[in-house]
Amino acid sequence: MYTTSAAILDALVEAGVEYLFANFGSDHPGLIEAIAQARAEKRPCPKVITAPTEMVAMSAAHGFAQVRGRAQAVLVHVDCGTQALGGAVHNAARGRVPVLIIAGMSPATQEGEARGSRNEFIQWIQDVPDQRGLVRGYVRYENEIRVGANARQIVHRALQFAHSDPRGPVYITAAREVLEAEVPRVSIDTGVWQPLAPGGVNADAAREIASALAAAERPLIVTSYLGRSPGAVPELVALAEQLGVGVIESVPSYVNFPTTHPCYLGVQWNERKQNAALAQADVVLVVDSDVPWIGEVSRPRAGARIFHIDADPLKQQMPLWYIGASLQCQADAALALAQVRNALEEFHPDPDRIQRRRDHLAKEHAAWHRGVDEREQPKEKLTAEYLVASLRDAIGEDAIVVSESVTNFHVVSQHLRRTKPGTLFSSGGGSLGYNGGAAVGVKLANPDALVVAICGDGSYLFSQPSTVHWMARRYAAPFLHVVLNNGGWRAPRQAVLSVHPDGLAAKAPDIDIHFPLAPDYAAIAAAAGGAHTETVKSVAELEPAIERALHAIRKENRAAVIDAHVS
Fold this sequence. Notes:
Blueprint: H1 4-14, E1 19-22, H2 29-40, E2 47-50, H3 54-68, E3 73-76, H4 78-84, H5 86-95, E4 99-105, H6 122-125, E5 141-144, H7 151-162, E6 169-175, H8 176-180, H9 203-215, E7 219-223, H10 232-243, E8 246-250, E9 264-268, H11 276-280, E10 283-287, E11 305-310, E12 327-330, H12 333-343, H13 351-375, H14 384-395, E13 400-404, H15 409-415, E14 424-425, H16 434-445, E15 451-456, H17 457-462, H18 465-474, E16 480-485, H19 491-499, H20 504-507, H21 521-529, E17 532-536, H22 539-556, E18 560-565
């Protein structure tokens, strides 16, 4: 018998979905049976990755898609499993990462009218008025499969949305009777379900941007996620070199520009000071960035011309957003930058002006580099800067790093000094807990890579490490988990100081954000997944601990956790 569930699995295979990150429930008998049938008949079927918690399942699919660029499937249980995805759906939506979420629904019948009719008490309790509404504000597409005959078409349509800019998660549901229903086999031509072709800017826009960049004294490019398309990075490098344009990264979620390049002017985050490069810029080109600057404390100089190229220039899911751009273009970054470079042929930029820019940038980059180098020197106490620098030297340029270090986000971005696209990722969102599951997904996407997750102690707990490390062992996906342990949540204290610098909370010794009786973070991973564990409290302990942890990963094929107590 060929069922809706079997048709869904066939659609996933047709679409190139390799993994089904699954948290099975009572709404999934049809899918479980279809998977067993495919295995028995040796037909293609996505590999099932059992994920005991939904946040980790979604984060793993998120990490996989960041490496491969293709959505994987996440299977969850009715409204309860959908709600348990909450923070991870936010991250994928804000990060514009394609993920296909499939959720069952409570049966629609209760007297045996169809196979799959209600036979457990929970199926009345889990029947809610608008299950799809739980994620409607975060997904690019949501739909219910009402009849199984077009289930495959709906899966392909959902993935077409997921992979078209602005990309993001999609959500489909089906009641248990529908998943059990016998359906006809249909023939699918996947060529007609391709995502929208990427587009560039129009010729007039390319000329306007090229002209402004060529005539400026201090042009600047700001980006955050241009590197999600590795082909865009060399285009950005070529434009910066051709014109002598500085580049800064604002809260980067990818490697957007090699940090060793003389045009690179560093990373900005939540610093409470004006960014010097922004203050000098007379022309600013923002490419693929949600928050290019924080206007209350740092912004381009008055009168600067601002241009904006983005996969999502309207920021469709952000109710409040504007940067004062006189020209905004929805375009693929790689195509648009190539068009701007081609348009420069009309303007013949002044070579003396370009050389002055290059000389200025070389000095600014050297100063930035000296500052980074000074901050990462060993001190009496173990610092995050020294730890990240030591880790950088130990893992090399080809390792893939997943960063969710919150108040040390800028430290990781600066001191890792990444130069290769595709070797540094963050969630792109604001719901903590992405790091562990994402590391598992990254490892599944690139089994030969050394994968490292760097997080704070708060975000380590949010990542649900018992589930993460059980999965890492179960599916042979070992990685290095580095916890920058500063004893609690530092971000709320920084927020209080920024709004009430002279308030009572700023002076209080305790505002309920510390973890004075902290768990043994590394031991959680050891108990759940047999991970190698290290606790580091001094500079002298760090490098030997990193060496032992990497040995466990490379030689023993097991994950390792370094709980590093940083000042």
